[in-house]
Specification:
By secondary structure, this protein is α/β, with parallel strands linked by helices. The chain has ten helices and eleven strands.
């Protein structure tokens, strides 16, 4: 069964059941709330799929969506023979909007999709916020996870620039988007406003990709900006401290940017406390966005790990 929605208490006793086994886990949490509708997802299985291999499920970063994984997902699917499923997290992409954004809730949302698709076991990969979700899922439901890949995020210490992130959200929320603008004009306006926050053109393109036009012709952001702003500091920006002491004993790979500061070599011993089988690859020429900074090396690293494990 899924993690159940419970009345607020300081401690919850939650029962996590996969199709193959059940496990009782206990952790400190806020109310665990599952999205009423299913998360949005996209399945890549156009090439040969080996039914004996667990599908790979992708988890995107903060202010992203599952579509960011589409290009690499198609290559991974072709080279590993695994079905690849890209999820949109709650309040991101085409998934339902919720006021709360807690990693226990995001784990619960994902399990609901696995149950709908009748998937008994998964391999998972997540970048940044998605990496936190993957780590939480593997620690809470180890019997559900065949293998784990974490991209440039550490469970030991958060190194997100919160002031910068909050300024980005504030800027996005205050762009004067009039329905009379064309999409090109609206994106140019949003990009111009964001230039006051960051000179990183790749990042601005990433952020502006969230801009969409509704059925009524109004512009809006695919991401739930108010919810992200309200949850950033206390929930999204840090790994749940109540998971300290838990272990995932399955195959684990951390793919890190050699020029990134999100995972430092001083973190590795404590990361191994959570994930004793963890292997680490630091890719030269890559910062936090490893998969776009060094796409070929990233894809080769992921496929090698999945084919061997």
């Amino acid at each position: 069964m899924l993690l159940k929605s419970l009345k607020p208490q300081n401690w919850y006793r939650l029962y996590v059941t996969s199709f193959l086994s059940s496990k009782c886990v206990e952790f400190s949490s806020c109310n665990v709330d599952t999205v009423a509708a299913d998360l949005a997802y996209n399945i890549h299985d156009s090439h040969f799929v080996d039914p004996s291999k667990p599908p790979l499920v992708t988890f995107h970063a903060f202010l992203g969506s599952g579509s960011l994984w589409d290009g690499v997902a198609m290559e991974i699917q072709k080279e590993t023979g695994r079905k690849v499923i890209n999820l949109d997290a709650r309040s991101h992409g085409n998934s339902p909007r919720r006021a709360s954004l807690h990693y226990f809730e995001m784990v619960n949302d994902a399990i609901k999709v696995f149950r709908k698709l009748e998937i008994p076991k998964v391999s998972i990969i997540g970048h940044s916020m998605g990496g936190y979700t993957c780590m939480a899922l593997s620690l809470l439901c180890p019997d559900l996870v065949s293998s784990l890949i974490v991209v440039d995020i550490s469970p030991v210490k958060a190194r997100l620039d919160l002031v910068f992130a909050m300024n980005v959200l504030k800027c996005m929320d205050t762009v004067p988007l009039k329905s009379s603008l064309t999409m090109s004009e609206a994106r140019q306006l949003a990009d111009h406003k964001l230039q006051a926050i960051t000179t990183d053109k790749k990042l601005r393109i990433y952020l502006v990709s969230n801009l969409v036009r509704t059925a009524t012709g109004e512009y809006t952001w695919k991401t739930n900006i108010p919810a992200l702003r309200d949850n950033l500091i206390n929930n999204i920006a840090k790994f749940p401290p109540s998971l300290k002491g838990r272990k995932y004993l399955g195959p684990t790979l951390f793919i890190c940017g050699a020029s990134s500061e999100h995972v430092l070599k001083e973190d590795l011993p404590e990361i191994k406390d959570f994930f004793p089988q963890a292997e680490f690859t630091f890719i030269e020429g890559a910062k936090h966005w490893v998969q776009t900074d060094q796409p070929e090396r990233f894809r080769e690293t992921v496929c090698k790990f999945l084919n061997e494990k």
